[in-house]
Amino acid sequence: MSLFRLGYLTLLLACPWWSAAQEKPSLLYYLPAIAYDPAIPTPASYLGYEVGTWHVTHDQLVGYLRELDRISDRISLREYGRTHEQRPMLCLTITAPENQARLEQIKALRHRLVTPEGSAMPDIKTLPAVNYMGYSIHGNEASGSNAALLVAYYLAAAQTADVQQLLQNTVILFDPCFNPDGMQRFATWVNSRRSRHPSPDPVADEFNEPWPRGRYNHYFFDLNRDWLVAQQPETPGRIAIFQDWHPNVLTDHHEMGSNSTFFFQPGVPSRVNPITPVRNQELTARIGEYHARILSAHNVAFFSGENYDDFYYGKGSTYPDAQGCMGILFEQASSRGSQQQTDNGLLTFPFQHSGIRSLEFT
Ligand SMILES: [Zn+2]
């Protein structure tokens, strides 16, 4: 099932293909050892450093994705807006080349689905599913946008039959950064404050950004409250894409406190908006079973069904829930810098769960 398969991609930074003896991340730390198209540049070959060793800046992220768009026939990129600070808002449409040639036709068929007459059309099984993947709307929750480099590479370069089938059956709307100004502010802070020999002490300068921190946009607005009112320039273009495609699933990737583990929705049942259909929560929980299985197989601690509301439709993971789409919030414990000491041990940016693992193994 293609949507379940996509769920795996959301866990890349949290659930790498682990080698306990490995001290520095490599591409195969994050991704499975399968055949990749050598014509597609890896993130490290473009950036000059491996993902997770430094915090990617927004301009670097944009440069890499434009390069993938230039080379890969699986990707079409468009700029759908500009931030207050004139950074581009990007959405990549990632799907099989045959689907790239008929995007307008797929979209038109999906529009029929939202009418009572159209929803009974007979060819629904041949219509690709649409998954909207969005990263780091809070700019100092950086693992999302950094993982986006790897997810985009994987989808562009993987040569296996299952990835080709995934791309045949799915159109992926891929937004690498919902909050470019905040992300750039945070990346600049942590990269400029880190030492040659990193200090993991939580009181170190690196982990204590000055106000307004990277969470907000240029005018200190929380963009994860703007999906309903759409008052900031980052939002309207994104809402238009959502309404243009009627995605089946929207994934919304965040970070939470450093002493936590990993969370995915559904959230607290008593804090779900009563307008949201029960079926929406049932399907969200069913997809969650996939995440639980993968994380458990890798001995990664997680929780679900506790904490985090699904009430206010101005949030990215709730806005879709009233519109025939499943919005799913993911929260990763944040190292908030290169590496930080936590209640669960040392939490590093690329090795997010190393502390948890060592606790479990003792
Ligand atoms: Zn957040």
Structure description:
- By secondary structure, the chain is α/β, with parallel strands linked by helices.
- Helix content is 34%, strand content 15%.
- The protein has helices at 2-9, 27-30, 43-47, 58-71, 97-100, 103-113, 143-157, 161-169, 180-193, 236-245, 278-297, 354-361; strands spanning 75-82, 88-94, 129-135, 170-175, 249-256, 262-264, 326-333, 339-342, 345-348.
- The strands form two sheets. Strands 1-2-4-3-5-7-6 form a seven-stranded mixed β-sheet, sandwiched between helices. Strands 8-9 form a two-stranded antiparallel sheet.
- Mean pLDDT is 90; it is low at 1-8, 12-22 and 354-362.
- Zinc ion binds next to loops.
Gist of the model:
The chain has helices spanning 2-9, 27-30, 43-47, 58-71, 97-100, 103-113, 143-157, 161-169, 180-193, 236-245, 278-297, 354-361, and strands at residues 75-82, 88-94, 129-135, 170-175, 249-256, 262-264, 326-333, 339-342, 345-348. It is of the alpha/beta class. Zinc ion (ZN) binds next to loops.
Short descriptors:
binds zinc ion, two-stranded antiparallel sheet, 362 residues, seven-stranded mixed β-sheet, globular, alpha/beta
Helices and strands in order:
Layout: H1 2-9, H2 27-30, H3 43-47, H4 58-71, E1 75-82, E2 88-94, H5 97-100, H6 103-113, E3 129-135, H7 143-157, H8 161-169, E4 170-175, H9 180-193, H10 236-245, E5 249-256, E6 262-264, H11 278-297, E7 326-333, E8 339-342, E9 345-348, H12 354-361
Parallel strand pairs: 3-4, 3-5, 5-7
Antiparallel strand pairs: 1-2, 2-4, 6-7, 8-9
Helix pairs in contact: 1-11, 4-7
Bound molecules: zinc ion (ZN).
Zinc ion binds next to loops.
